[in-house]
Amino acid sequence: MFKNVMVVGFASLVCTAAHANLIVNGSFESSLAGWATAGTQLFYSPTAVVTDSTTGCCSGEAVPADTVVGGSDEAAGTHGVYFVDDGANQTLSQTLTLAAGSYEIGFDAYAPQNGFNQPFDASFMGTFANVVFADYTVHGQNAPKQWFHYSGIADILTAGDYSMLFRYITPATGGAADIVIDRVYVLASTQGGGTLITQVPEPTTLSLLGLGAAGLLFSPRRGGVKRA
Length: 228
Hints:
The protein has three helices and 15 strands. It has helices spanning 113-116, 138-141, 206-211, and strands at 5-6, 36-40, 47-50, 56-58, 61-62, 79-83, 89-98, 101-110, 123-128, 131-137, 147-156, 160-169, 179-189, 195-197, 221-222.
């Protein structure tokens, strides 16, 4: 069942050369253009918000622009995507047509204080070609009011369509933690040494891939911290 994906392991990285971001609208300056949302929610679906340190974007709380140094070559801009809901199982995704080669992948994430103070946790996962490269709970891993960076390397051996996907899950029992993400990227690279992906896995293999996710988790690299 694992014949389509051979896991070698990700490596944390800082981009070493300027490359065009293959993700469309990776900094969400054009709202959700290029992205697709799906899943269930009680009240809110993922939405683009202003991140400029002054606009009350997230339950009335202002969020600063992304302060991470490294990762995406794109400027942070003044927008991100906000995930907030109770009883949510939501996804945000974009599919790319890629040639065979090595690619640097990643995104930045921020936990607003208001959401962090809620009694229930939220889980967040980032996957590329159905291989997990970020998987954490807000209360368990992210300190509030700080931008964190998650990244990896994917070595694609077969040209084809590959998806960058984020999943946000919360319980339906009450207020849960929320998340803002920004500066999603896929960059052509010469680094190699990452996960070897021969093709997008068939749907029947996805549950098995989840069993191996623990070995692919990232410790976030803390970016420039800006406290209110």
